[in-house]
Structure formats: structure tokens, C-alpha cells
Design goal:
The protein is α+β, with helices and mostly antiparallel strands. It has 2 domains: about 1-90; about 110-330, BirA Bifunctional Protein, domain 2 (2-Layer Sandwich), CATH 3.30.930.10. Helices cover about 40% and strands about 20% of the residues. It has 11 helices and 9 strands. It has a 7-stranded mixed beta sheet with strand order 1-4-5-9-8-7-6, sandwiched between helices. It has a two-stranded antiparallel sheet with strand order 2-3. A hairpin with a 6-residue loop joins β7 (about 255-265) and β8. The longest helix has about 40 residues, at about 50-90. The chain is rod-shaped, with a radius of gyration of 43 Å. It binds adenosine-5'-[phenylalaninyl-phosphate]. Adenosine-5'-[phenylalaninyl-phosphate] binds near residues 200, 207, 258, 272 and 298. It is found in: Cytoplasm. One of its GO terms (molecular function) is ATP binding. Belongs to the class-II aminoacyl-tRNA synthetase family. Phe-tRNA synthetase alpha subunit type 1 subfamily. Tetramer of two alpha and two beta subunits. It catalyses: tRNA(Phe) + L-phenylalanine + ATP = L-phenylalanyl-tRNA(Phe) + AMP + diphosphate + H(+).
Length: about 325
């Protein structure tokens, strides 16, 4: 093969092997052996040549043509194999069962919160919420706990800086008693579910941030008997059975008399569930009510403790650790 044909062969084979798609391969192939391809034109030119030259050159050109066709055929097969491989990798068996999606669930404390609200709403209670950052006035003073009163030590408080600005993370939901009474007139029935914060060490039944439900009922002749009836009805509905409760005397500056409410379920000891009492006359006066005409009861219940009792959880900290193995039980 003369030099020129040798060059065409090398170039054609290299271009053919470098093709990455059928389309590219076809274009290369046609540039040599298509109707106006380089080799085709040379084949056509043979007819004008003297017979001897035509023979020699014709055989060389036909050899070249065969080489190009062979190389193109091989490349076509190679592309075919790759295509099958790629398609094989992307192939999806739509009849295969899928991986089930992980199902989320409502956090047990949220669920308990909803249940608490439903039960009290059914008894005619209004539901309200208040700020987590509270003023000293609402968290303490208006609740009959003046500055420097030893009762302030009952609640270990997170003070916001600077301390003399008088802002705290509310230590209980009781400030909402004041805020609500300032805006409403008796008779009233209210619950306030919400988060509270205390600067204290944690243990099985104590957390530094937990949830309470405040309850307040004010009207004419509201008495401890009303409180017992309401709280008894609540426990029965919440636990779906009668539960044993007891009232112990307890001190809270904003009630008089005050008591602690304990409850016991089969197989468990007594657990303090709530602080409660008859609203102190000073508190009624602060919001402009006349203690001679109206009376009321108030309570502050540990919502996390209700969840502990309901689901037989022996450590309150589990509710806040976000451990998926624990939370999965409540799906
Ligand atoms: C109070 O916070 C009063 N505000 C309750 C009250 C309201 C009394 C209205 C009278 C009238 P006490 O600090 O005891 O009280 O908390 C109330 C309830 O919250 C407790 O009975 C308990 O169930 C729950 N509790 C208290 N401390 C924690 C804590 N660290 N972790 C989880 N639950 C707690």
C-alpha cells in the first residue's frame, strides 16, 4: 500500500476506535466509505486509470476498504456490549418489594399534652399559653412571693443577664394565672400547658426543663371539693381507670390552704403529681378581684410525670434524650 493509503488507513482506524457513540462511528465511517467518502472517491477514480494501474491500486483500495469495514464492525460490537452493561446496571426490577419507609410518630409528651387538653376542654376549661421568658413580677411578686422572701428558694431559677433586669425563665406555669385573670373576669376555668425551667440537678423524677399544666378555676363558692372532683375526673379519664390519689398539706405562697397531690398506681409507690390549693386572697386582689365575692382553686401538675405514670417509664430524662430506641415504643 502506498504511503497515502497507509496514512488513510491509520487515521480511519484511529478515528473509528475513538468513537464513543453509534452516531459518531457512523459519521466517521461515512467520511471514508460513504457516497462521497475519501476511499469511495478513490475507488470511483479507478475507472479512468490504465488497466495495469487500476488492478494494483484497485486491490490496494479494496484491502483498505475491508480494513475500515472490519474496524467499524468491531467497534460496533464493542459499543453494543457497553450499552448492554450500562443498561444492566440501570435496570430496575419493579416487582421487587421496596424498603419500607421509617415511620415517625408523635412524641409521647406531645400525645399526653393533647390528651390533657381534650379532657379539660370537655370539662369547660379554656386553654392558654404564655411566655417562657417571664418577668420577676409575674413569676414571683404577683404570686405573693416578694423579693427576698424565703419562698423564692423553692424554685431554683435561671435568671437572664443582667440579673437586675428582672427576667427569668419561668420556673412554673403559675404566672399565667395572673396574666389570664388580668384579662378575664370570673367565673373562669383555665388550663395552661407549657414548658418550665429550673436550675437544678436532674435525677429519675427531676429534669431542669420539664412540662407543667396549670389549672385555675375561679367563681362564686368554688371550694376544695370542686378541686377534688375535677382532678379525680381528670385522672380517671387520663388513665382510663380509677386511681388512688391523696392530698398532703403543702406550702405555696399563692394558695391558702395549699396541698400536694400524690398518686399511686398498682405496683408503684406514691409519686407527687401536682401542687395545688385555694387561690390566695392576695393573688385575687392583685388582679382586682374581690376575695369576699369570689374564690378559686389552682393546681400545677407535672405533665412529664403523668406520662411516666401512663407509660410506666421510670426515668423522666428518657423523654428528652431523643433516643430513637425509646421513642420507637410509642409508634
Ligand atoms: C409548682 O411549680 C407550683 N407552681 C404548683 C402550684 C400551682 C401550686 C398552683 C399551687 C397552685 P412544684 O414545684 O411542686 O409546684 O411543681 C409542680 C409539679 O411539677 C410537681 O408536683 C411535679 O409533678 C412536677 N415537677 C416539679 N419539679 C420537677 C422536675 N424537676 N422535673 C419534673 N417534674 C417536676
Amino acid at each position: 500500500m502506498d504511503n497515502e493509503l497507509e496514512q488513510i488507513k491509520t487515521q480511519a482506524i484511529s478515528e473509528i476506535q475513538g468513537s464513543t457513540t453509534y452516531h459518531e462511528l457512523d459519521t466517521v465511517f461515512r467520511s471514508y466509505l460513504g457516497r462521497k467518502g475519501r476511499v469511495t472517491l478513490q475507488l470511483r477514480a479507478l475507472s479512468g486509470m490504465p488497466i495495469e494501474e487500476r488492478k494494483t491500486r484497485g486491490s490496494l483500495l479494496n484491502g483498505l476498504k475491508e480494513n475500515i469495514e472490519k474496524a467499524a464492525q468491531e467497534k460496533r460490537s464493542a459499543l453494543e456490549t457497553n450499552k448492554n452493561k450500562e443498561e444492566g446496571a440501570a435496570w430496575i426490577d419493579i416487582t421487587r418489594p421496596g424498603t419500607p419507609l421509617q415511620k415517625g410518630s408523635v412524641h409521647p409528651l406531645t400525645r399526653v399534652g393533647w390528651e390533657i387538653e381534650d379532657i379539660f376542654v370537655a370539662m369547660g376549661f379554656d386553654v392558654s399559653d404564655g411566655p417562657h421568658v417571664e418577668t420577676e413580677y409575674y413569676n414571683f411578686e404577683a404570686l405573693n412571693i416578694p423579693a427576698n422572701h424565703p419562698a423564692r428558694d423553692l424554685w431554683d431559677t435561671f435568671w437572664l443577664k443582667p440579673k437586675n433586669a428582672g427576667y427569668v425563665l419561668r420556673t412554673h406555669t403559675s404566672p399565667m394565672q395572673i396574666r389570664y385573670m388580668e384579662k378575664h373576669q370570673p367565673p373562669l376555668r383555665l388550663i395552661v400547658p407549657g414548658r418550665v425551667f429550673r436550675y437544678e440537678a436532674t435525677d429519675q423524677s427531676h429534669h431542669f426543663q420539664f412540662n407543667q399544666v396549670e389549672g385555675l378555676m375561679v367563681g362564686t363558692d368554688v371550694s376544695v371539693a370542686h378541686f377534688r372532683a375535677v382532678i379525680g375526673e381528670f385522672f380517671e379519664k387520663f388513665f382510663g381507670t380509677r386511681v388512688e390519689t391523696r392530698l398532703r398539706p403543702g406550702f405555696f405562697p399563692f394558695v391558702e390552704p395549699g396541698f400536694e397531690v400524690d398518686m399511686r398506681r398498682q405496683g408503684t409507690g406514691w409519686l407527687e403529681m401536682a401542687g395545688a390549693g385555694m387561690v390566695h386572697p392576695n393573688v385575687l386582689k392583685v388582679v382586682g378581684y374581690d376575695p369576699q365575692k369570689v374564690s378559686g382553686f389552682a393546681f400545677g401538675m407535672g405533665w412529664d410525670r403523668l406520662a411516666m405514670m401512663k407509660y410506666h417509664i421510670d426515668d423522666v430524662r428518657l423523654f428528652q434524650e431523643g433516643d430513637i430506641r425509646f421513642l420507637k415504643q410509642f409508634v
